[in-house]
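Justification of resources, computational component.

The compute hours requested in this renewal are based largely on the per-chain cost of generating structure records like the one below. Each record pairs the submitted sequence with a full structure-token output. That output is archived, and it is also reused by downstream analysis tasks.
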Amino acid sequence: MQTPARHVLWMMVAMAVSAAPAAHARTTYSPTQVAADAGSVTAIKHWQIQDSAKAQQGGADISATGFSTEGWYPVSGRATVMAGLLENGTYKNDVFYSDNLRAVQVPDSSGNLFVTPWWYRAEFTLPKNLAERHTLLRTNGMIASADVWVNGHQVADHTEVAGAYPVHELDVTRWVRAGANALAMQVHPADPRTSLSIGWVDWNPTPPDNNMGPWRGVDIVQTGPVALSFPRVLSTLSLPDLSHAALTVNVTARNLDTVAHDATISGTVAGVSLQQTVHLAPGQTQLVSFSPDTTPGLALDHPKIWWPVGMGDHPLYQLEMTATVDGTTSDRAATTFGIRSVTSSLTKQGYRQFFINGKPLLIRGGGWAPDMFLRDDPARMEAEFSYVLNLGLNTIRSEGKLENQHFYDLADRNGILVLAGWECCDKWESAAKTGGSPWDAADLKVAEDSMASEARLLRNHPSVIGFYIGSDNAPPPPIAKMYVDTLRAEDWSLPIISAAADQGTAETGPSGMKMAGPYDWIPPAYWYADKLGGAFGFDSEVSAGADIPRLEDIKRMLSPQEQEALWKYPEARQYHASADWSTFAVLTPFDQALAHRYGAPTSLADYVAKAQLDNYDNVRAQFEAFNARMDAAKPATGVIYWMLNNAWPSLHWHLYDYYMNPAGAYFGAKKANELVHIQYSYDSNGIVLVNHALDDVHGLQASIRVRNLDGSVRFEKHLQGIDLAGNHTQALATLPAIANLSPVYFIELDLAAADGKPVSRNVYWLSTRQDVLDWPHSTWYLTPVTKYADLTALQSLPAATSEVHATTRREGNEDVTTVTLSVPASSKAVALLQHVSIRRGAHGDLALPIRWNDNDVTLWPDESIVLTARYAAQGTASPVVEVSGWNVPVQSVAAGATQATDH
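The structure output for this chain reads:
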């Protein structure tokens, strides 16, 4: 049995916190060394933090060099208060296990830690020879606000540095000196109901500190008298031939001095040289532009085109700019960008359709969640993007909790589209709701600054394809106009969407979105309906609710009592379902469906096994229904699974859990989102081929079998010489009425290339009794079911035999394990939903994160399949493959090493 604090790769520090000493010694961190070069940006790497109730000195004292921080907490550069306390092992128990977090949310003997401001203090060292040099302090977002002090001087107050997203640059040149300097920020408490910060609604429990702190970090910037900022490249691409692109380059030049300067702005973009001299009066800011009219080389022939994943490559270009004053480098600015076209229009039915480089595409994505304490972990983020690719998705939607530069760089490099936007509820949407608290002038200023800062961060990234200025509700007219005007002032060229719901504004027009549910359990056939959340139009957030992790994860997140309640008591509230929202705090709809369709669970292991079948089947059906309708007369144009991931260990809404252990939902989604895919349609008994790539495929071969529970084939058809157009679906066959089907039967689909190489394999387990939905009694989150499909006969399957052979080879920094699963002809039954895991040694940890080419596979006697897994090489223990399944006994096989190769 796994203990709650057992490590997995890239797990956050909270998973192994231990008792901490009562007082913290003065940190041994060295002051942040600020780079000497003009144009350098140096992040504050570490802070010391303390509750102002304990550190009662004023900002002038705390920001003085030499101030003693004895007993303060040393934390990393982007730590919120709660994240910093976790870094210091402040809490004896794992706050992600059971309901341990409740103990942090209530006052202790010393009072509530999070209702008073907290001090953040850092020291930094500036280089010598500061003449002609300006030092800027850049805050990249503050929850909720901060008073800022440098070397005993207050340089800004909390009315100026406020909001989760605004970037503020403060010129602190007159207060700093060569050598040692001190920075102190008094960070004020956050409350998403009263400030434009970050809230979590029903995603997970509210962080006890409401994410108070400089969550995106603080930078020290060195520049000469003329500073460069906000470099921008706008490309206009010729359609449909993609043979020409016109680039427009903009950069903002600002004179920080009290005397005028002539500055030469020069650089390169896509191999083209740029140069322009400007005269700047004292304090003047000027936009410096380059276009094909002034620089003919900016009219590119045969540019490298950026495509989303599955449609082409994702090449990036570089822009580098330098400002020179009196022959000396004053500042530098750089950015990457991609050349691509993004447009959207409304279908005849009024739903939004996106076009990339003139080509329509089906948006297939998931909703993004950062760590609930907003802890910065670049390695984990890279692993999560590898999962998005492995899942076959092409889009991430961010409903608030907008990420830092690294997130968008990863999206650019991997070809993952991003739909960004503000979050729902709390202060962000209070002005849009009847009876909501109005925004005052300070709120409007923070919102405007937030919009401008996010536009500057996002606009160069080819991955970003639009911005939702509202989520569950469109903003009221004055705020909508402010958002749109701000975006346009920042040279925003992408679609501006009024809301994720079916609402519009005068400035944006209709949203082209629908948000009609479900968020809780419905049967797979639901997705093929022409109502509510069915597969038509653009579903901005939707899923069948509960996604149950694998058993080892259940045991590390739930107490024994919670584990028992999970399978025995459908009405029991689960803290890891939704701590604060009664609607989703119980799993009753899911549990009732599981018991009716698969049989009442007999143990926790039985419950989890049945949940994997259901999650795989339902998630696959959701994406496949949208596949099937992507080029229909009433087209499906987009679906965002709610959600992609979780901010903490959860029983709800994810394609992979917080421990990054892929389970049924993951592999159901992965199966449905294959680039070239064969699938079954619940509404028509049709077999459909899907091609998400742009290239046509020729000479495909397909096999269709319908099997009874005992494995006997009741229908079989083989097709050859199939041509499948790129970016299209194709109806392949319709299953006839088949006599003498067992109450539970299977459809087995295989698609192969002309040379016989496997392309797609898909297996369904179906009931002759259909699920019946009660559409008139639908709510915003659920459509009730009056009759359930009967799949209980699966419980009668005899044990199947599975033979396992595995080897491992080293490729660069990764281990690649190849697993051959075979069901011998002598086996008594189908081997249903076989799951393969890999451990680091016989009793070691699971190898996570891990990327499989396929998993959760179903095989009949005399069938086999080859699976491959990639994961980070670590340690010297030989990998051990574990295989389990619905009716397959658990077995472990050593994955012997083969010769290492470079990769």
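The first strand starts at residue 32 and ends at 33. Residues 1-27, 107-111 have pLDDT under 50 and may be disordered.
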